[in-house]
Design a protein that fits this description.
mainly beta, 115 residues, four-stranded antiparallel beta sheet
């Protein structure tokens, strides 16, 4: 059974940094694409950043220059380094992975940025 396990969320002051990590277990496949989404209260879930096996990355405009996504193909992990955090970054962050033709989601990790 495939599972995505996230870690690294928490409370931080504006301007601070956090690093989120996500590990995929239970699959013999290396995920060709992994991503981070977030959902703030009362808002739709949105793509934050994605990375494919070639290393190509994609970012939401709101996080460009502040967040960095990276993927370890051998370990099937994806990380999100978040710098210069703003209160509007407050949300539940979800890991997402394509494995064996199926999209999987993590359970989510809360990130709260205080002003």
């Amino acid at each position: 059974q495939v599972q995505l396990v996230e870690s690294g969320g928490g409370l931080v002051q504006a301007g601070g940094s956090l690093r989120l990590s996500c590990a995929a277990s239970g699959s013999m496949f290396s995920s060709p694409m992994m991503a981070w989404y977030r959902q703030a209260p009362g808002k739709q879930r949105e793509l934050v950043a994605s990375v494919v096996s070639t290393g190509h990355t994609n970012y939401a405009d709101s996080v460009k220059g502040r967040f960095t996504v990276s993927k370890d193909n051998a370990k099937n992990t994806v990380s999100l380094q978040m710098n210069s955090l703003k209160p509007e970054d407050t949300a539940v962050y979800y890991c997402n992975a394509l494995l064996g033709g199926t999209v999987y989601w993590g359970q989510g990790t809360q990130v709260t940025v205080s002003s």
